[in-house]
Amino acid sequence: MDNQKGALFPDEVILQILARLPVKSLFRFKSVCKSWYRLPSDKYFTNLFNQVSVKEQLLVADVSDSSSLICVDSLRGVTELSLGFLRDRVRIRVSCNGLLCCSSVPQKGVYYVCNPSTREFRKLPRSRERPVTRFVPDGEATLVGLACDLNRNKFNVVLAGYHRSFGQRPDGSFICLVFDSETNKWRKFVSAVEEYSFTHMGKNQAVFVNGILHWLMSGLCYILTFDVEHDVWRKISLPDEIRCGNGGNRVYLLESDGFLSVVQLSDGWIKIWKMIEYETETWSVVDSISLRCIKGLVPGIFPICQTGEYVFLATYKQVLVYNRRSKLWKEMFSLKGSYSLPLWFSAYAFRSTILPCN
């Protein structure tokens, strides 16, 4: 960006300021001058913007039968996003680093990856494996994962589940389809694995850390992982205190500032674990949060995302944010009127990036 004669600030200072704006404001300011118009497509600036924004965690939730979403920011409050640009009725399957993977409701087997902040999207090509007929029990993949690499500006979509050949009974094999945004193609491999089971939240809280996707298995015995680059499945252990249901509490898998994290809920406390050493699978308790102030909401509260400073939680009709420094709770959003599904059912971690997807 060329520094204008008599400018008040150096170019780098201006870029640092612009990198801290919401995406909507950044695109609105494109009309200021030619150099600002080019910023959203400038590689240096997009990397800078994403490095800043990836530190800020947001929550998005589908709150109606339309294509509108709410976006909850601990600092800026609640704004609205829309998926109307997809021109299809979709449901969000998974979120990662500013991109959403959505499946078409009327057309099974049709998937989109979109950036609701920039309104860019890509309709994924159909796999030759005809996933509608090859996944059981309901024709859809058991696991859907989205792995977005901000450094390389690429993403992968993972569809995995138990397999059956068309017109035949399930044969017990676990099929995995991986879409690569660079080649615009799917690749496939089949594994003979033990039977995996997952809760609704376990399936939908796919966590991408260290280039690997993670899902929490039901029964709380292990975390199932998938290495996107090497097509390798493996299991890693939970903390001993909660492994195989030893803690007797609800447990959720999240990400925390680039680390894998487990959030454990009891009647009176939230205990937050972080995997401080990934190679040795070493866990440590990093925070304990009293639930005394919201005791009546505890049975229906679910953690959705977190940073070192905030924890976002959803109830049936509310979004709450806990400030870990001040130890204060704040209601950020409350759903008015009737809605058939609880908010936590359709709430996802989100980051506002300008990662391209088309």
CATH topology: Neuraminidase
Count of the domains = 1
Q: Quickly give the CATH architecture.
A: 6 Propeller
Unreliable stretches: none
Global shape: globular
Beta-strand proportion: 35-45%
Which CATH top level class fits?
Mainly Beta
CA-to-CA gap between the ends? 25 Å
Largest sheet: 5 strands, antiparallel
Protein name: F-box protein At5g49610-like
InterPro entries: F-box-assoc_dom_typ1 (IPR006527), F-box-assoc_interact_dom (IPR017451), F-box-like_dom_sf (IPR036047), F-box_dom (IPR001810), Gal_Oxase/kelch_b-propeller (IPR011043), SCF_F-box_component (IPR050796)
Organism: Camelina sativa
Domain F-box: 3-52
What report would you give on this structure?
It is built from six helices and 25 strands. The chain is mainly β and 358 residues long. The strands form six sheets. Strands 8, 9, 10, 11 and 12 form a five-stranded antiparallel β-sheet that branches. The chain has a four-stranded antiparallel β-sheet with strand order 3-2-1-25, with no helix packed on it. The model has no long low-confidence stretch (mean pLDDT 85).
